[in-house]
Amino acid sequence: MWFKNLRIYSFTQPFSWTEESVSTLEERRFSPCARSEPSSVGWIPPLGAEDGPLTHEIGSFVLLCLKKEEKVMPSSTVKAELEARKEAYEQENARPMPRKEQQSLKEDIMHQMLPQAFSKYAVTWAILDTQAQLMYVDSSSATKAEELTAVLRSCLGSLPVKPWGGDHPGHHVYTDWVKQQAAPSGFELGFDAELRGERDDDSVVRFKNHDLTTDEVALHLSHGKQVTQLGMNWQDRIQFTLTDDYALKRIQFGDIVKEQRDDSNAESRAEQLDLDFSLMAGEFAELIQALQQTLEIQPQVES
């Protein structure tokens, strides 16, 4: 359950979580795909019990988990069946099958194969922080994060959020940090970075486990490259990569946090999940507050 990525959203209007909010999720409790359904998406209990509550709350934090099932059909199988039916059509009608009919036939084949298709499952976690008026989604993909917000919006009727971040892409700030060879107070430069030219077709240079204060890095910056991803260390508690659109990727918790977890003495899996959630959410709240001050990101709603 420990998040590895963060897509952060700011509430643009005051938002609260109520018992009524919880009840609306029941309408989208996850159920497996029917035989003829290509996909199914819905909420599952965060603490694991199949018939358990669909949220877990501690203080101002609300934990949610969205599950998605997709039927997977190998494209080669669909293509082989389509080719066989096209050939039979051409032999019977003495002419090629029209393109429009090919597309319709392909859709029919996929529908007929659905009951035998394999299922692929994925879960996406999210935390609502009603005090900070923020939402954290554990996803490196903006599309996947938006899928979760869309499902939550359909349940609640309204979800006034926008992606969290500054007024300009992050590289304007990250590049200065690396040029100055110093991160802001409370942070340290990590050892990973991505540098891109100003034009879309320019080259990309990626550094991994590399000292970012070397002449090699400085040379790329002097040639006009911008730092579009930057590894950071916050108080030896959390290491992460900050992206140009203000997402946090490759999150790793430091020994300080791990030791706190090891000292928890949980007696059951549910209790351990509860303690992990409390610890992780608290760390994220402090980290994002520090980043907001550092990056001069103004909250959309006063907490």
UniProtKB/TrEMBL annotation:
<keyword id="KW-0963">Cytoplasm</keyword>
<dbReference type="GO" id="GO:0043590">
    <property type="term" value="C:bacterial nucleoid"/>
</dbReference>
<dbReference type="GO" id="GO:0000018">
    <property type="term" value="P:regulation of DNA recombination"/>
</dbReference>
<keyword id="KW-0233">DNA recombination</keyword>
<comment type="similarity">
    <text>Belongs to the RdgC family.</text>
</comment>
<dbReference type="InterPro" id="IPR007476">
    <property type="entry name" value="RdgC"/>
</dbReference>
<dbReference type="GO" id="GO:0003690">
    <property type="term" value="F:double-stranded DNA binding"/>
</dbReference>
<dbReference type="Pfam" id="PF04381">
    <property type="entry name" value="RdgC"/>
</dbReference>
<protein>
    <recommendedName>
        <fullName>Recombination-associated protein RdgC</fullName>
    </recommendedName>
</protein>
<dbReference type="GO" id="GO:0006310">
    <property type="term" value="P:DNA recombination"/>
</dbReference>
